[in-house]
Design goal:
The protein is an alpha/beta fold. It contains 34 helices and 41 strands. It folds into six domains: 69 residues, no CATH class; 51 residues; 203 residues, Rossmann fold; 144 residues, 3-Layer(aba) Sandwich (Dimethylsulfoxide Reductase, domain 2); 141 residues, Beta Barrel (Barwin-like endoglucanases), CATH 2.40.40.20; 274 residues, Alpha-Beta Plaits. This is Quinol:cytochrome C oxidoreductase.
Amino acid sequence: MASNKKYWKSVEELNENSSVVETLRNNEFVEEIPTDEFLGDKESLEASSTSRRDFLKYVGFSTAAASLVACEGPVVKSIPYVVQPEEIIPGVADYYATTIADGFDFSNILIKTREGRPIKVENNNLEGSKIKPNARVYASVLSMYDSMRLKQPMISGKPASWEEVDARVKAGLEEAAASGGQIVLLTSTMASPSTDKLIAEFGARYSNFKHVVYDAVSSSAAIDAFETVYGERALADYDFSKADVIVSVGADFLGDWQGGGCETGYTQGRIPKNGKMSKHIQIEANMSLTGANADKRIPMTVTQQKYALVALYNEITGSSVSTPAFPNKEAVTKAAKQLKAAGSKGVLVSGIDDVDVQMLVLAINNVLQSEAFNPNNARYIRQGNAKEVAQLVADMKAGSVHTLIMSGVNPVYTLANSKDFADSLKKVKLSVAFSMKEDETASLTTIAAAAPHYLESWGDVSIAKGYYSVTQPTIRPLFDTRQLQDSLLKWSGNPQSYYDYLKASEAVAATGKSWNQLVHDGVYKSSDVAPAAGGEVANYGGAAANLAGAKALSGMELVFYTKIGMGDGQQANNPWLQEFPDPITRVSWDNYVTVSKADAEQLGLENYNVDNGGLNGSYVTLEVGGAKLEHVPVLIQPGQAKGSVGLAFGYGRKAAMKTEMMVGVNAYTLYKDFNGVQSVKITKESGVHEFACIQLHNTLMGRGDIIKETTLKEYNEKEPAVWNEVPKVSLDHKEVPATSVDLWTSFDRTVGHHFNLSIDLNACTGCGACVIACHAENNVPVVGKSEVRRSRDMHWLRIDRYYSSEDTFIEDTELKENTSGLMNSIDTFGEMEDPSENPQVAFQPVFCQHCNHAPCETVCPVAATSHSRQGQNHMAYNRCVGTRYCANNCPYKVRRFNWFLYNKNEEFDYHMNDDLGRMVLNPDVNVRSRGVMEKCSLCIQMTQATILKAKKEGRPVNKDEFYTACSEACGSGAMVFGDVNNEEDTVVKLKEDDRMYHLLEHVGTKPNVFYQVKVRNT
């Protein structure tokens, strides 16, 4: 019998009119679940011990809580046009041809704009385009939206008008002319014919005028040598596609050596064709991008490299200059014989800052009659004169410089004797700095003249003799800025604008091409180029004798270099570049001194990983002469030559920088006399440095199904089944090829488009341009050093770098296969965790493989990830509730989880946290919210735009018309994207190539991304 007895838990319940009881009866949770407070506060989330299961229960209390976590979308405010410009169609991208020439990077490019906003850099593939964009060029569009930019000119630290600036400068110039004081224009290399003409006209007005060209990272020795032999201040151009044997002595020509841009020609010769490919031998101290791609790498200190160069000279020219003994002499002699045998198909390059070295390079290439060596189309992109810069500092110190006008330089940051420069600047009566930011130098000058970004400017550039290109603005100036050229015209009393002046100059520079056509194309190539003129008679024998007598430096050799991500440091406030992992070390947000393992043990230096996967390291003090650089983190680098250490330029900046970007140490402090090699004393410091390194595993450990490689001999002589073995699986107790087994019923994919992406491991240099292009196209967020250290980087595309444990990867495989027994296996595999002292290196771009049988799709409880007929794996962000089951089930580990809301969040104060920075965002791609998964989409917005364009024009899609951000950005041609249902597309031929394989093919995921086996010419 049921009881009708009334039970109660609180005396309050007996009060029938109680508002408290009514509230409790109607609301299970009286207060809203504080998910926003919990999940939006980084500190409280990190401090929480809540398990993942508890977390899911916590957010699963109500539908509202789950929605709050996973489905919160950013509110986007749009401002309509009052009068819509005719040339802008909302939703349709416009492209403008232009050229970047910032003194360090030079490249002919296209700029993608949306509704008047430049949002992305792309390749200009027209004939006459000279240098393909690198990672920094792709990132340069974001630097235009830097919130730390100068908004208007400043006089003595206070805002001023351009009229006030003009009056002050004109008065200063007149005073200088009257008093006989020097007027000096200090600029970076501009390689601009019209600007050179304008400067000459400006300088002709003053008898005491001088123009000094200053490059922060000097190539002065190479220019001096070229001028001696050919009578012109320039650099030889090289086309590595014409070389069968390439020998490089300390030249990182796949990086920034002499302006870069060599990767396109280089990789053309590196892909095996008709059984042949080029042979590349690298002699160097630091492990460089170029050395990592070489067939044979010989580690040597710079002094030893000089001896090796003399040995090469002796072999090729028949000279007999004796040298001291040096290590690896047999390998050098063998390389010299191969180079000599190649004759005109051989080429030698060097990056050592020594005139004698560069003289021998010219001598050897001339004796070989190298086809790859081209002095006729000499490069003009490095014009800096180290002697004149040193003389300028001396003149300033003596008080003889009255007016100093600077543009595109920051000597207070980049000069080793920057204190002398800063002190001497006080003796200059009038100092003007044209700068985008109130940087280290501009903050000390009389006038900080706000300069526009190159995307807001007019200009012209001659990257090399016979090549001419135009820089055009792609947006109205964002701030009250003015170019140096316009200012020089005003100060000269010339009423012309620089645009009119430039247009008049173009008629001479680009004969036969109209101004409109030139601006449209962006580039012009002359078919009539005069051969290089001769200079004085060169004393090659004397240069060889000087090198043979080179004394070893006392102590360790400090070898300076530039990272492919940071360059000379101009864009140090660019978060894309700060978070970009270095291709070799895989470290972001830092520079460091690289040391060999042997030297590290001798000095008591160490690196080790902690529980969360983060990498830690020791600190040292570096001392060069009387200059000290303290608190420098140490990274033990496999392949570093014993007796040498490396340090990258471009870090350690403080002025006009966001706090998060003030990282690293200023290597320029030790860059004495513009010499790239210094004798250094190293002292260990106390403390531990925390690196943001995104790759914990150092070696491949013989896992040949990830990176497949073979030798050229084996490739030519054996069947593909030997060097590109298809993995086997068991079916009905029989061993069968993995590709023949399928767990699912396959669909007919021959209807419509079906996209595939090919990646050639022979052509991929690991440069990372594709990573930055992906960032720009797909609104990938920057998360900062702390999050990267926790392995929470958001890069949709990573480039894995692998070292060999033995001297070669093939020896790794043999060691693994010859292992037997439990204890032997444990010992062997434990040893294989350590890379070789001079390892072989392999690079592999990895992103979502867009599997036709995707493991992620089968485990998603809300169907947020699904597959299309076109072969792309989709993400419906509004459906995703962040279970991360898909990431757990992905064998390629390419999915990224949004731990926080990175957009409009003060905890992540990068470009997505301010209105100016968000101008770079691509409106075709969602800005993802907290709590959802994201990953590569094979740029579905780009493929659909191509389809719609063809449909609108009433035609089928053309051959190779489809492309993604990464394939478009790849200057080496390693990435080829296309439609496998279009038999004319290049990707179809690549899929049928004998070198084609899929990553982890035995898993049976049937990816739409495939790779080409790496072939080494050993």
